[in-house]
Design goal:
It holds the Pfam family PDT. By secondary structure, this protein is an alpha/beta fold. The protein has 9 helices and 15 strands. The strands form 2 sheets. Strands 1, 2, 3, 4, 5, 11, 12, 13, 14 and 15 form a 10-stranded mixed beta sheet that branches. A 5-stranded mixed beta sheet has the order 8-7-9-6-10. A hairpin with a 7-residue loop joins strand 13 and strand 14. Helix 8 runs antiparallel to helix 9. It starts with a strand and ends with a strand. About 40% of the residues are buried.
Length: about 280
């Protein structure tokens, strides 16, 4: 089984993917869109992409690509505890407070905002495609006074020295990952709650349209665990919506709600019904 993930090796997505699919053939991709398009083009059997973080919220590029480009269903959700560590090349261990640049994925930099303001105020921050990319770059450029924010797995793989553990603002920091696949999958972890994720467009020129759509879930006693809007990228003020529903034992009620939304003029797509798998902190 070929599994696409946001690389390079030792990224958080790699960690989630390898624990969910320990015998899979891991294929690192440079960007989240690359992961999604690889599964769309049937180059891989599974794609694992980040969807939401405790501190920084949704990963917008994932939401946008799932709505606009992806037809592959969501078949699982993986929740990974996130510990962000500041690391440098071993040659620069004693000079880490004088680094000229801190590199990482934008979500990781934002998750460590308080630490960076307190300990490395004014230091340039450079955005990279992933945390592991930053660690790899720092390992390959010992002559530059650089630091990376990345997982412990990256420090071990790329031979870096951790100079500050748990630099994230919140101790209980977690990231959700969606697993996309056209084929049945088996994940060797404990199944937890069942969810269904829908996207929808509001009916045109209908006062109270959002209220009417959400009421289709409320009066059927279907709990929502999340709702989010994103720009439709057509004109200002046009949006599409994501909702996660707690759907265990309520598949027919969800189907009925979807039918009702269609009857009032909304456009709905079911991205998938799946179980949640939570990983323990290393």
């Amino acid at each position: 089984m070929k599994v696409a993930y946001l690389g390079p090796a030792a990224s958080f997505t790699h960690s989630a993917a390898s624990k969910a699919f320990p015998y899979g053939e891991m294929q690192a991709k440079n960007t989240i869109p690359d992961c999604i398009m690889a599964i769309e083009k049937e180059e891989v059997d599974v794609a694992v992409v980040p969807i939401e973080n405790t501190i920084e919220g949704s990963v917008n590029v994932t939401l946008d690509y799932l709505f606009h480009f992806s037809k592959v269903p969501v078949v699982a959700e993986i929740v990974l505890p996130i510990s962000q560590h500041l690391m440098v090349h071993p040659e620069n261990k004693t000079a880490w407070k004088s680094v000229q640049k801190v590199m990482s994925h934008p979500q990781a930099l934002a998750q460590c905002h308080t630490f960076l303001q307190a300990e490395l105020y004014g230091t340039e921050q450079e955005v990279t495609p992933s945390t592991a990319y930053a660690a790899k770059y720092v390992s390959e450029h010992p002559e530059e006074l650089l630091a990376a924010i990345a997982p412990r797995m990256a420090s071990e793989r790329y031979g870096l020295e951790i100079v500050q553990e748990d630099a994230q603002d919140l101790e209980l920091n977690q990231t959700r990952f969606f697993v996309l696949s056209r084929i049945p999958i088996e994940i060797p972890l404990i199944k937890e709650e069942e969810k269904t994720t829908l996207t929808f467009l509001l009916p045109q020129n209908l006062p109270g349209a959002l209220h009417k759509i959400l009421s289709t879930f409320a009066w059927r006693n279907i709990d929502m665990s999340r709702i989010e809007s994103r720009p439709l990228k057509t004109s200002l003020g046009e949006y599409f919506f994501f909702v996660d529903l707690l759907s265990a034992g309520k598949s027919q009620l969800v189907a009925n709600a979807v039918e009702e939304i269609g009857l009032i003029g909304g456009e709905v797509r079911n991205l998938g019904t799946y179980h949640v798998y939570r990983l323990a902190k290393d």
